[in-house]
Model the fold of this input.
Amino acid sequence: MDEEISIIDSNTRNEKIKNFFVNNKKNLIITITVIIIGLAVFFTVDEIKERNKIKLANKFNLIKINYKKNQKQTTISELVEIINQNDVTYSPLALYFLLDNNLIEDRTEINKLFDALIKKTNLDNEIKNLIIYKKALFNSNFVTENNLLKILNPIINSESIWKSHALYLLAEFFYSKNEKQKAKEFFNQILILSNSNNDIKIESQKRLNRDLSE
Done:
């Protein structure tokens, strides 16, 4: 008797499963199709991204190999194009190449390129902070105190590994302006910062002992 009941239950369960697939055949086909298309799109997009990365890498390396000062404008245009691709690797490298070789003299144009990286590129936080620091370093000889602070605020108000670099830049900025009390305050902040760069901490202590000890 129990065996017969078990067989009936099994048949009933199988019938329910069969009916479910029959009644939902259309929806199941649509769902499976959507999943297959989704996977295909995902892997296609991923492959396209990888190909574009390789193209950018080849383009950047070719620019470096073929770089000549008498082809300055061509080099600038190609590097700016890479920067505007907002690639997390080669866009920053392209800007660094422009800066290292002094290819663009217009500070406004350089700052626009910095901002394109900082605001539009999906960078790791510490890479972004490094670029912010480099922007501040680039502008430090030209901008006012308020503007320099404005540039560096995202780093100063964080626990970034670049914070001691930012504080040191501000300290030296104020020292160069003969605002010694402000300079001293920033140097002291470096000394008490838990993750200060060791070399920067040593230089800060030297500056305080040698020039700001009174």
Summary: The longest helix spans residues 25-66. The chain has two domains: 16-123, 135-214.
